[in-house]
Amino acid sequence: MTPGEGAGAGPVIDGSVLVIGTGLIGTSVALALRRADVDVLLSDVAPENLRIALESGAGRLAADDDEPAIVVVAVPPRHAAHVIADASRRFPRATLTDVTSVKARVLREALALGCDPARLVGGHPMAGREVSGAAGARADLLDDRLWVVTPLDTSEVAHLRQVHRLVSMCGAYPVEMSPADHDSAVALVSHTPQVLASVLAGRLIDADPDHVRIAGQGLRDMTRIAASNVDMWSDILTVNAGPVADVIDGIVAELEATVLALRRVAGAAGDPGSSPLVADVLTAGVEGQRRIPGKHGAAPSAYREVTVVLADKPGELGRLFSVVGEASVNLEDIRIEHVLGRPSGLVALFVKPEAGDRLVAALQGRDFGVRS
Amino acid sequence: MTPGEGAGAGPVIDGSVLVIGTGLIGTSVALALRRADVDVLLSDVAPENLRIALESGAGRLAADDDEPAIVVVAVPPRHAAHVIADASRRFPRATLTDVTSVKARVLREALALGCDPARLVGGHPMAGREVSGAAGARADLLDDRLWVVTPLDTSEVAHLRQVHRLVSMCGAYPVEMSPADHDSAVALVSHTPQVLASVLAGRLIDADPDHVRIAGQGLRDMTRIAASNVDMWSDILTVNAGPVADVIDGIVAELEATVLALRRVAGAAGDPGSSPLVADVLTAGVEGQRRIPGKHGAAPSAYREVTVVLADKPGELGRLFSVVGEASVNLEDIRIEHVLGRPSGLVALFVKPEAGDRLVAALQGRDFGVRS
Fold first, then answer.
1. N or C: which end of chain B has fewer CB within 10 A?
2. How many Cβ atoms sit within 10 Å of the Cβ of residue A40?
3. Which of A192, A271, A241, A233 is nearest to B223 (CA)?
């Protein structure tokens, strides 16, 4: 296939793509490329993942005389630099990219190990699952996901363009950033939240079970990601150690100032008065939370929350959403709150304000208990 | 009505209940009691809340000669002690309780202000909404919720029993704890998570919007409660300052140790090796997260996650849950992941492992894109 000759519009990769590392992301990339009829070569030092990837139709075993147009390195962060540099030597004309979740250190070390700086363009697809390995891979895992592309100052435009093609053929959307910017960004929005969740959850180990039992949705939300894979995160935090330490330092400073302010009011007799600092921390939190884009990247908007009290029996959720569908109301978000120790639940439905009354009327007409 | 004369089984309150403070919780308590035909008296220094509460049928205006059997103080934490002590003087035989979210300091100060120690039994219903005020109140707000009851060493059993009756008549379930234990518990499971969410969200204010844009579900979960009411939380944190500062101190110490470990590997040349401490923090997080009871207070169980790719058009969620209902599959949990900048969404359905295959087959049979 030559450029422009592909089936219809859309990007075309002229040649084969070698995916090194057939874990969750590597195999998903391979499956997505196979879906687009790209010739995909696979290699992995782990025979089990490779076998699963081959059997699931993610590509064929790389042969000695294959000359891939693009090499995608999808190995754990600690091994990525070596594998990238090695690929640079073996395939002297290929575009080199990776999917490692940390960029500056990995790319810098790949260059130090002799990788061709003109052909290297880093990448990081913002997708993942709570499972890992080739068995968890899906052709559509990257569909509609953002994929950060981190060219070096030395990356040639032709190779950058190849990586953009790769991203598009996987169904994802590219966002360009420098490697250092990427690492600061993920340290803030992903790696530090992981550390905070883990440290907070860790405090529950020695807590009285009765104390943990009265926890509400807040603690559940704040510790959900603490259940993540330890080895994978240990690796990520180690390789992005500097930027993560910087973000945590800032958070520690703020927490220490908060503790000081709290100790001051705790020592006060009678009315503890108020602490301007504590109020400032809370106010900044409200402001910062608003900076997170809402659904579909649009500005966050104020939704109306309609809470439904649900009987805990099969089919109740189905019945609920059938009513929602019949009322032609589009749900913006859903949250299920579990009531501990009791066989019932609360479902919070978030809708555009103008749709709220219609939804409430429809639900009440079908005997749902509604709080609005 | 005399004890035992009530309509059928269930608890009976012999006399009227005075609710002082007609905000969200006070008015909800009043509405729940009215639902059970209890004579409810209302009072509030804020005329607007009082008017709404009266108009919504939450009770009648307290008269000079009313002698309530129970007084429920539902005012902000900073004012609770004074109001409790004042009620003790005005109603020398009434059971005295409150719904303040901080207990030891409030009850201690009420006693110091002359409250009768035999009649005082603190309480804290574990319910809330993101709205406040009488207008947000619901008769069923406390249904199936836990309500922490904190008797003093000096509380007489008859008054403790009255508070248990109150809790039951509101549809909630009592959990007994000492005031100090309650405060340590909420410092850990509610107040400190609030501070962490606020501090983390506050770091987003000065971040590059492109950095925030690549955030996934983790950051959203970790900052959701940062949107809470500043005045209310400022008040809560101030009154429970000591226990909250203690919990944050422990978290700061762990974060500082983590930063040290990260700085050590960040400084290492070549392979950063691994940090046993970082792995320990992550492992403790996994372990601690498991301590949070799952749905219905049962031990957390491993659910199968089935992810559905959903077209963003009205009725798709309804169609999805209709299929779930037809397949007679009970959903244990739902999570909606928004894909930024793209008109589609992912819905993660959590079901018992044995129901997974049936659900997947039903969804695929109705043309839903499924990842499992």
1. N
2. 25
3. A192
Is B249 in the A-facing interface, judged by CB distances under 8 Å? yes
Shared domain check, B196 and B151: no
How is A262-329 classified by DSSP, letter by letter?
HHHHHH--SS----HHHHHHHHHHHHHHHTS--GGGPPP-PPEEEEEEEESSTTHHHHHHHHHHHTT-
Measure CB to CB from residue B272 to each of A141, A173, A239 and give the nearest one: A239
Q: Does the distance separating the beta carbons of B204 and A188 come in below 8 Å? A: yes
Candidates A221, A244, A318; nearest CB to B221 = A221
Please answer whether residues B128 and A218 qualify as being in contact, where contact means their C-beta atoms are separated by less than 8 angstroms: no
When CB atoms are compared, the residue of A245, A256, A331 closest to B262 is: A245
How is residue A2 written in tokens?
Answer: 């030559």
What whole-number distance in Å separates Cα of residue B256 and Cα of residue B118?
A: 46
Asked whether the beta carbons of residue B318 and residue A325 sit closer than 8 angstroms, the reply is: yes
The CATH number that applies at residue B334 is 3.30.70.260
3-class DSSP state of A31: helix
Chain B residues whose CB is inside 8 A of the A181 CB are 208, 210-211
Q: Domain holding B51: CATH number?
A: 3.40.50.720
* pLDDT of chain A, 372 residues: tens digit per residue: 333 333 444 567 889 999 999 999 999 999 999 999 999 999 999 899 999 999 999 999 998 899 999 999 999 988 999 999 999 999 999 999 999 999 999 999 999 999 999 999 999 999 865 567 788 888 988 988 899 999 999 999 999 999 999 999 999 999 999 999 999 999 999 999 999 999 999 999 999 998 998 988 889 889 989 988 899 899 999 989 999 999 999 999 999 999 999 999 888 766 666 788 999 999 999 999 999 886 434 444 567 888 887 776 666 777 787 788 778 777 777 777 655 444 456 788 888 888 889 999 999 998 888 876
Let me know if residue B299 belongs to a domain. no
Half-sphere exposure of B179 (CA within 13 A, CB side): 21
Q: Give the H/E segment covering residue A147.
A: strand A146-151
User: How would you class A154 by CB atoms within 10 Å of its CB: exposed for 0-12, middle for 13-18, buried for 19 or more?
Assistant: exposed
Asked if B326 reaches chain A (Cβ–Cβ under 8 Å), the answer is yes
Chains A, B: CB contacts under 8 A, how many? 473
Structure tokens that stand for A128 in this block: 């993942």
Q: Is A367 on the interface with B (CB under 8 A)?
A: no
Interface of B with A in 181-210 (CB under 8 A): 181, 184-186, 188-190, 192-205, 207-210
Chain B hits for A167, CB-CB cut-off 8 Å, are none
Neighbours of B202 (CB within 10 A): 24
User: From the candidates A190, A194, A287, A289, which should be mutated to test the interface with B, based on the most B CB atoms within 10 A?
Assistant: A289
Helix (H, G, I), strand (E, B) or coil at B53: helix
Q: Is A333 on the interface with B (CB under 8 A)?
A: yes
Tell me, yes or no, whether B37 and B65 share the same domain: yes
Instruction: Tell me the C-alpha distance between A31 and A40, whole Å.
Output: 9
Q: At how many degrees (to 10) do helices A316-326 and A356-365 cross?
A: 130
Query: Would you say the pTM of this structure is higher than 0.90?
Result: no
Q: Please name the residue of chain A whose CA is at the shortest distance from the CA of residue B233.
A: A282
A238:B371 CB<8 A: no
B164 in contact with A, Cβ within 8 Å: no
B62 and B167, same domain (yes or no): yes
User: What does B194-240 look like in DSSP terms, one character per residue?
Assistant: HHHHHHHHHTTTTS-HHHHHT--HHHHHHHGGGGS-HHHHHHHHHHT
Domain-ending residue, one of B177, B212, B246? B177
Last residue of a domain, one of B265, B290, B315: B290
Domain coverage including residue B219? 184-290
The tally of domains found in chain B comes to 3
